[in-house]
Amino acid sequence: MCNDFDKVLNREYYFKYPAINTKTQVRLLRVSPNCAAVREMHYSLETFDLSNLPSTHYTALSYTWGHATSTDEIDEISINGQPFFVRKNLYDFLETANGKRESGMFFVDAICINQLDSTERLCQVREMACIYRNANKVIAWLGVPETAQELASVRFLAQIKDRSGCANWTAQQWDGFRYLSYHPYWSRVWVVQEVLLARSMEIWCWYFTFSLSLFMGISPTCLSSPSKVRFSADGRPRTAFHAISHSCSPAEKIITHRTRHVLRPIADPLAQGTAVGTLEEMTKGLKCPYTASKTYQSRVPDLIHKIIQKFGMLECLDPRDKFYGFLGVLKDSSRVKVNPDYTMPVSYAFRQALEIGLEEIGGEHWVGMHSRQYIQAYDIWLAYYCDVRDAFNMNDGEGMSILREVVAEIRHKARLRDPMLEGSLARNFMSHNEDIETFPDLEKLLRISALGEGKKTESHGCWP
Fold this sequence. Notes:
Strand order of the largest sheet: 5-4-2-1-6-3-7-8-9
Radius of gyration: 26 Å
């Protein structure tokens, strides 16, 4: 069954895109002031230089594509005087934006990028960070509630601005909160980048608008404890996450990662503590807090081994996006090493994710450690392999073969950079944990790769 019926029709109708330089330009959709109906509106695509986006006023859309298996799941609009077919969820957004009198320039990937041109898609994927970071506003579109009960709960929640009074919420408001915070929208890999990079963001559910502050949950420090390697009954290594990472909703998990909490002084402690007055006044003053928790959007880039640990199990149509979908939020030193290529097999992206993540961990944990710290580094190293393997749904046979090559390459690079590091690597990849014996192939692989003994015996064809 074809899931790209919209693309099929756009190809058959020979839709002509305005030409762009895919490496230096982007198209934006101009939405005119509201008309009686979306079908009567005439949209247009215009070309902009990426270098001019910081000074261009536009809105970027973050949404789920949905299915397009039949004509019932697509609708027709007019762009540059030509028919163009979009999926139902996107059409619902355009209809809602029209009803809310939204106009101006919009970035909508299904329209602005020629989805029939694989070369253009590849080039534009690399610019997603630039596009979403420079947008004046990003709209998270959660679609239209399907039932009257869902619609009613969302309508009641729309009366709430933040979480400060959640103890007094009604049952219907809590139903609305659960509906929004567990919406399938939050299960997308690409949502992470779009939410983290947005300067300003609104959540739309039909005609109702919500602030991100409504979904700010627990402090991100609670989610940052290191992974530990555990082993299943069959000896297969797995990662055990901190229980609290499963206690918040998908929306809270992503939005909380976007925010950082700091203590800001709200009064002069010295003046407050030495104030002169009546006993009642002084007592009241001393009870006032000196600081208050403030939140702000973090601009600190992420490391791939941490972002895959937290968000690697989110969904995407192409498994390679389990890596490429996070490029925009990565630290520069990691991002420059990535070469997105959708023409290569999934194992190519898997290998890049392994290699770059392990090099990040190496930079953090391999140099200047005491002997006891090697055990922790060893656990983190193995935990990352488990995270990437599970994210890509890779079997251990193929995954460990790639792991062996990556370990050998990292070892070679480290020896060239610093001969003193060779001893550290060798000690680090030796078994320090009896649990490893439950999965001996992995222990042997790491030990042999680290010590340079990774050759099969010619007579038996197995590990020595």
